[in-house]
């Protein structure tokens, strides 16, 4: 498909190859010389694409081009600046939407050992936690704190310039037996209500 469409000047490897190529392409203007490294990278990439496209039928190539043109026109009509040609762009948008889910209560069934509190037990508990963002709960305090940090008026202290999704209330105490049949009770383990603090 790409054969003969563009010729590159050969590498100065052997005199016989340069004589053969100069006689075959004497009617064409001399192409600018490139460094061997750049030429090698470009020609290997070109050969990869040409071998890839040669494996497709003409109908498949037409379908590919029409799909790309259709996506391009959809992006331009919707006011998009980036072309949605690759599935990665969609996954980036999905991740961005996932980052802006409101603060909410979630739950997970885990063993007591997985809680990281130092207890060895195979008993399972329902662990409720808070997850989400608090963009809608930004107050004047948060905006002013962010401004003071950007102006370097507050330098060394570790301060958070936005509200955080945290438990507002906790579930009842959780009791369990450990691996040595000892009885324990843990308080304020599982969230009952979440909010932006």
TrEMBL record:
Extent of Low complexity compositional bias: 9-33
Region (Disordered): 1-40
Gene Ontology cellular component list: extracellular region
Subcellular localization: Secreted
Keyword Phosphoprotein: no
UniProt keyword list: Disulfide bond, Growth factor, Secreted, Signal
Main location: secreted
All copies of domain TGF-beta family profile, residue ranges: 92-197
Keyword Repeat: no
Domain of life assignment: Eukaryota
Quaternary data: Homodimer; disulfide-linked. Interacts with GFRA2 coreceptor and RET: forms a 2:2:2 ternary complex composed of NRTN ligand, GFRA2 and RET receptor. Also forms a 4:4:4 tetrameric complex composed of 4 copies of NRTN ligand, GFRA2 and RET receptor, which prevents endocytosis of RET.
Family: Belongs to the TGF-beta family. GDNF subfamily.
Function: Growth factor that supports the survival of sympathetic neurons in culture. May regulate the development and maintenance of the CNS. Involved in the development of the neural crest. Might control the size of non-neuronal cell population such as haemopoietic cells. Acts by binding to its coreceptor, GFRA2, leading to autophosphorylation and activation of the RET receptor. Heparan sulfate-binding is required for signaling.
Protein name as annotated: Neurturin
Recorded name of the encoding gene: Nrtn
């Amino acid at each position: 498909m790409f054969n003969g469409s563009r010729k590159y000047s050969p590498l100065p490897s052997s005199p016989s190859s340069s004589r053969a190529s100069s006689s075959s392409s004497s009617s064409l203007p001399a192409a600018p010389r490139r460094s061997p490294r750049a030429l090698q990278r470009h020609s290997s990439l070109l050969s990869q694409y040409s071998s890839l496209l040669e494996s497709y039928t003409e109908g498949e190539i037409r379908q590919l081009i029409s799909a790309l043109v259709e996506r391009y026109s959809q992006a331009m009509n919707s006011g998009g600046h980036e072309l949605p040609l690759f599935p990665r762009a969609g996954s980036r948008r999905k991740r961005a939407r996932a980052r802006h889910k409101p603060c909410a209560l979630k739950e997970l069934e885990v063993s007591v050992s997985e809680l990281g509190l130092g207890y060895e037990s195979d008993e399972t508990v329902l662990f409720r936690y808070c997850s989400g963002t608090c963009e809608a709960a930004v107050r004047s305090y948060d905006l002013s704190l962010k401004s003071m940090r950007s102006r370097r008026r507050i330098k060394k202290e570790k301060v958070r310039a936005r509200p955080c999704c945290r438990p507002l209330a906790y579930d009842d105490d959780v009791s369990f037996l450990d691996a040595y049949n000892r009885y324990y009770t843990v308080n304020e383990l599982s969230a009952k209500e979440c909010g932006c603090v």
